[in-house]
Amino acid sequence: MTEQFFTYTDKFTNFSQADKDLLNVALTFKAVVAKTELVSYDKRTDELFFLLKGCIRKYYIKDGEQITIYIMTENNFIGAFDSFVTGTKSKETIECLEPCEMLILKRADLDRLYKEVPLMNEFVRKILEQTLIQFQQALTSFILDNPEERYTKLLAQNPEILQRVPQHMLATYLGITATSLSRIRKRILEKA
Questions:
Q1: Least crowded by CB within 10 Å, which of 18, 22, 124, 168?
Q2: What is the pLDDT of residues 21-69, one digit of tens each?
């Protein structure tokens, strides 16, 4: 299971075999069914997740409505970072949309790895830089693009998500209603 993880880490840094052995000890494998909440609203979390298989979403609840803010598939990290770093209760929920397999890294293990594996600092910095860029691109898209442009970008960048995520969740992710998403999809199909 960790081979897939180390194929991913090799894109960012070159851990030695000794480093990989220490990481192997720190990572815990977990398989869960669809609809499992990895992080629950108003609960603390000390875990980060690296998704090996499946699809996960992160969402907030506002006025009783679930608003999807992030959708993730294989070979990515996810977590409720504010809760993970500060120890406060999470404002978000992280839910598996499919049966998932993942590696889990606990906060205490990450802190230990920072000391035992110096390259871990560089690896995490690069992951955080990548995450910051993704969030900035998403924010920029919400400011500059109309809903149809956001949908078209999603279709071009990550078309398999459209098959893996229910339409009402995709709609909130795009900042629109499910009805608006249906209209956008119909217009795009008519143009094709």
A1: 18
A2: 999 999 999 999 999 999 999 999 999 999 999 999 999 999 999 999 9
Secondary structure of residue 165 in the 3-state scheme: coil
Tokens standing for residue 42: 């108003």
Alpha helices in the chain (DSSP H): 2-9, 17-26, 81-86, 107-116, 119-144, 147-157, 161-164, 167-174, 178-191
β-strands 56-62, 65-72: how paired?
A: antiparallel
Per residue in 74-113, pLDDT (tens digit) is: 999 999 999 999 999 999 999 999 999 999 999 999 999 9
Q: Are 90 and 45 in contact (CB under 8 A)?
A: yes
Distance CA 154, CA 159 (A): 7
- Contact between 96 and 36 under an 8 Å Cβ cutoff? The reply is yes
* Inter-CA distances, 178 with 32, 103, 172, 174, 191, Å: 28, 33, 8, 10, 20
Q: Is 89 in contact with 45 (CB distance < 8 Å)? A: no
**Tokens coding 110:** 């990450």
Q: Is 94 left (phi over 0), alpha (psi -120 to 50) or beta?
A: beta
Supply 143's token pair. Answer: 């400011």
